[in-house]
Write a structure and sequence with these properties.
Shape: globular
CATH topology of the largest domain: Porin
Number of domains: 8
CATH superfamily of the largest domain: membrane protein fhac: a member of the omp85/tpsb transporter family
CATH class of the largest domain: Mainly Beta
Structural class: alpha+beta
Strand order of the largest sheet: 28-29-30-31-32-33-34-35-36-37-38-39-40-41-42-43
Number of strands: 43
CATH architecture of the largest domain: Beta Barrel
Helix content: 10-25%
Strand content: 35-45%
Radius of gyration: 37 Å
Length: 912
């Protein structure tokens, strides 16, 4: 394990933080007659004399002026860093003054080990202890609170009188310690009796007996808590939303017995009724679970019901609520008149003078009109006036008013917005006071305002924060900005920004705390600020984000410590996370595409995965992983080495070794290879990937007529270089509703290292997602693949199945072998998928229906590429939203071959 904080000589490395705090004394003022000066200087760290090299870096030297303020400043700055837990500075003599520094480095907890003798696993204690965590500063005064915390954990498990011992072990001469906890949890007490208090008579004998039977058994608070919570939830579902079931325990330590008292209070029963329409009761019942003002709950319930009904299309719904009490029952009733069900087919405007109708539609994110669906749901349409008024106010129309009128036209309805704009207010002049370090032109550009712009006070006040942020980015701290808004004449406002510039700081020193495993060189590569730079807040935060993206720290904190009028020091504190991870997964798959809805009629087999990961292996944020997959169609093992810097270059690199076996319809193969991949974000969401790969493939079987290249069992070697460009602007990678995804992959396989490969491949994909109306989504996917040269069958393009062309089974689209009728793949591919999804069941918002159209084909040669030869498929299905993408059930018909039997597909994830 690496020791020390800084990458200098071994002797002075542990003491370099001390240098950090004394450099502000870089020059000694001239001496005055009679003023005490510094004589000798001695430094001890952890009881050992500091090496002579350390004194060479200290600006303290004999003959400097001495003052108590100087000593206090040194101690203050040392404590601020958290590097030292104890600091003593002793002086002797009057003139000169000899100084002796005694410093003790701050200890950090490396790991806690919990040895539990019996009755309990250590995992529970390790999970729930919060006082002392690995990577945090350690002080022996924390052992008491940690001991109390462990005792409470044991108490919650029913243990009394535990014996807890702890041993502190320092790791070598480092500043790390391990804690060894030896825990005897003691013994559990027996429940002697169970008593009921409160409204126990309202609880059924069966429920009371279930808890009464705990008498004579070991006292287990978690079990008792579960019983009481289940009983409380049951009563709340039965109409007692304020029911409380809790318990108290009295302990008789002499007899090792516990008496339990169950307090049951049901309070009043609340009955909620709806008349005139069927609506979900859960919209209202949460309002009455707590003790609230009845009038507020009643009004809020009316508002929620109106929103629900309007969202369902009942635009003219009316709701009236009332409540009454009878003995111990609170009766709440809502009278609902839903009216006819309609949808908004168009939104129109009148009265606007300064904006076109198209500008207003864009401001409200409205399409022009819809003939089959609503342009906006019934709930949102009532929000349009407020949204449009806000739009006008931001553009300088403070008196703008908007009124909504809904005109019924059968099942359709027209929403019309009447606009009263009122006068517009504008900005006259903009001044900055007093004279500032930055010119007015720069500050005008920062606030984004100019004379003649619309006057909107919140936007003007936002300019104050923009100026403060700008000063922060240029190294200033403590800047404050106010603005005076003066009406020079009706509707014209002059702005005076009053800026009080703070102190401007440079970064003098950067130190790191808590990186026990991660190398200093690795950390420094992620910094976007260096010593001597202005203390730009944005660069400091970007450095923090970069360090977090290394994925080796559970937390990264940065602190600024001013050490002089124009210099500050940055302290980065790290908490390193777990370095090892292991996971397994198991599932089911069918040997072929599902042939029916009956699972028992499909051949099912197990599919499993296993993964072992070791991160930050050599302190350079690298990661070594092994991933294996086993299934009917493929077996794969991948060993991957991931580096945040590829040969020192600023992009992430991967070195992969793999073995795989895959079974396809026309062939099967064994492959082994190695690849080197570099990934780098170019700009924004644009990413580039460069891969150099060598693979050796052996065909295990071939179901088609073998070609010159595809000779059965003949090893085929390929060396290839590929580059990819990816631009992802989707709002969600797994369940996108808006945005687009574009990628282009170019691969060149060339005869190198004795390989037979000599081909070029290009594959382009574009996906677009669009929401034409609320909860309606339209998506389109286009794919184009082209190849040339000597391409073996396992490198050719194939299509067909749930993720490409749903009018054919897996790999079945395109040319076939004339003898076996199995697919042979091709050197050209084109696919287009168009899909519309829509709400299916109002009670299941995650469920959607879908209709889709697929077209495309695979061609043996590029010269055979012909758009007139495309196949077409049409189908429909269901989608159920999951965190990993939609679970899809689809039926598809091939329109080209006019097959009468539809194809059934069941899969998860978006079509790729």
């Amino acid at each position: 394990m690496r020791k020390g904080f800084f990458c200098l000589s071994q002797k002075i490395r542990p003491f370099l933080p001390l240098i950090f705090f004394f450099t502000f004394l870089s020059s000694a003022p001239g001496q005055e007659v009679g003023k005490p000066v510094i004589g000798g200087i001695e430094i001890f760290v952890d009881g050992q004399p500091a090496p002579a090299e350390l004194k060479h870096f200290l600006p303290l030297h004999s003959g400097m002026d001495f003052s108590p303020f100087l000593i206090r400043k040194i101690i203050q700055n040392l404590y601020l860093t958290g590097l030292f837990s104890k600091i003593n500075i002793f002086q002797s003599g009057e003139n000169p003054v000899d100084l002796t520094f005694y410093l003790e480095r701050q200890l950090y907890l490396h790991q806690s080990f919990f040895l539990v003798t019996r009755g309990l696993t250590s995992d529970l204690i390790e999970k729930e202890v919060r006082t002392l965590r690995g990577g945090e500063p350690f002080d022996e005064t924390l052992l008491g609170p940690a001991r109390t915390e462990i005792e409470n954990i044991l108490k919650n498990e029913g243990f009394f009188e535990p014996k807890i011992d702890v041993r502190v072990e320092r790791i070598g001469d480092s500043h790390l310690v391990d804690l060894i906890w030896k825990i005897d949890p003691g013994s559990r007490m027996l429940i002697r009796r169970v008593q009921w208090k409160g409204e126990a008579e309202k609880i059924s004998p069966e429920d009371r007996e279930k808890i009464n039977r705990l008498a004579g058994r070991e006292y287990n608070p978690r079990l008792l808590q579960a019983y009481c919570q289940n009983l409380q939830q049951r009563f709340r579902r039965q109409g007692f939303p304020r029911a409380e079931i809790n318990w108290l325990v009295s302990v008789d330590r002499d007899n090792r017995a516990a008496d339990i008292e169950i307090n049951a209070w049901l309070y009043e029963k609340i009955v909620v009724e709806f008349q005139g329409a069927k609506v979900p009761a859960e919209l209202i019942t949460p309002l009455w679970e707590e003790r609230v003002f009845e009038e507020w709950a009643l009004s809020e319930g009316e508002s929620r019901l109106l929103s629900y009904l309007r969202r369902k299309g009942y635009l003219q719904a009316e709701v009236r609520g009332k409540y009454s009490r009878e003995e111990n029952v609170l009766k709440v009733s809502y009278n609902i008149r839903p009216g006819p069900k309609q949808f908004i087919s168009a939104v129109t405007f009148s009265g606007q003078k300064n904006f076109s109708e198209e500008e207003l539609r864009q401001a409200l994110a409205l399409p022009a009109r819809a003939f089959l669906t609503a342009v906006i749901d019934g709930e949102s349409v009532y929000e349009l006036p407020q949204r449009l008024e806000a739009f006008y106010k931001m553009r300088g129309f403070p008196q703008a008013r908007v009124f909504l009128r809904i005109e019924a036209r059968g099942k359709r309805a027209l929403a019309h917005l009447f606009i009263e704009e009122g006068p517009q207010e504008k900005i006259g002049s903009i001044q900055f006071e007093p004279e500032l370090i930055f010119p007015d032109e720069v500050l005008l550009r920062i606030i984004g305002l100019k004379p003649g712009d619309p006057y909107y006070s919140p936007q003007i006040k936002l300019g104050c924060q923009k100026i403060v942020d700008f000063y922060q980015q240029n190294g200033f701290r403590g800047t404050s900005v106010g603005v005076r808004e003066i009406e020079s004449r009706p509707g014209i406002y002059n702005l005076i920004y009053e800026v009080k510039e703070g102190e401007r700081y440079r970064v003098r020193q950067i130190i790191f705390i808590g990186a026990f495993i991660t190398r200093l060189a690795t950390i420094k590569k992620e910094l976007r600020i260096k010593e001597g730079d202005w203390a730009a807040a944005g660069l400091i935060q970007e450095s923090k984000r970069n360090l977090e993206r290394l994925r080796v720290f559970t937390s990264v904190q940065v602190e600024e410590i001013p050490v002089s009028e124009n210099e500050l020091d940055l302290v980065f504190r790290f908490y390193e996370g777990e370095r090892s991870l292991a996971s397994v997964g198991i599932g089911l798959e069918t040997k072929s595409e599902p042939r029916s809805f009956e699972i028992w009629n499909n051949v099912l087999r197990l599919r499993g995965t296993a993964e072992i990961v070791r991160s930050n292996l050599m302190g350079d944020a690298s990661q070594l992983s092994f991933v294996s997959q086993m299934s009917l169609k493929e077996t794969r093992g991948v060993v991957s080495w991931e580096q945040p810097y590829f040969f020192g270059l600023p992009f992430r690199g991967y070195l992969n070794f793999w073995l795989e076996r895959e079974e396809r319809i026309s062939f099967g193969f064994d492959r082994r290879g190695v690849s080197l991949t570099g990934i780098r974000a170019v700009k924004g969401d644009l990413m580039t990937i460069l891969t150099l790969r060598y693979a050796r493939t052996v065909l295990t079987h071939l179901e088609i007529t073998e070609s010159e290249i595809d000779r059965q069992f003949f090893p085929f070697s390929s060396t290839s270089l590929s580059t990819s460009l990816i631009h992802d602007r989707r709002d969600d990678s797994f369940n996108p509703e808006n945005g687009y995804f574009a990628s282009a992959v170019f691969e060149w396989a060339f005869p190198l290292f004795g390989s037979e490969a000599d081909f070029l491949k290009a594959f382009i994909k574009y996906q677009r997602f669009y929401a034409p109306a609320a909860r309606w989504n339209l998506s389109a996917t286009f794919r184009l693949g082209l190849g040339r040269g000597r391409m073996p069958i396992h490198e050719r393009f194939f299509a067909g199945g749930s993720n490409s062309f749903r009018g054919q089974e897996f790999d079945e689209l395109g040319p076939k072998d004339p003898f076996s009728l199995k697919p042979v793949g091709g050197k050209a591919l084109i696919l287009f998928n168009l899909e519309l999804s829509f709400p299916f069941l109002s009670s299941l918002p995650a469920m959607r229906g879908a209709i889709f159209y697929d077209t495309g084909n695979v061609f043996s040669k590029r010269s055979q590429f012909d758009l007139a030869s495309l196949e077409h498929a049409l189908g429909f299905g269901l989608r159920y939203r999951t965190p990993l993408g939609p679970l899809r059930l689809e039926l598809a018909w091939n329109l080209t071959e006019r097959k009468t039997r539809p194809l059934l597909f069941i899969t998860i994830g978006q079509i790729f």
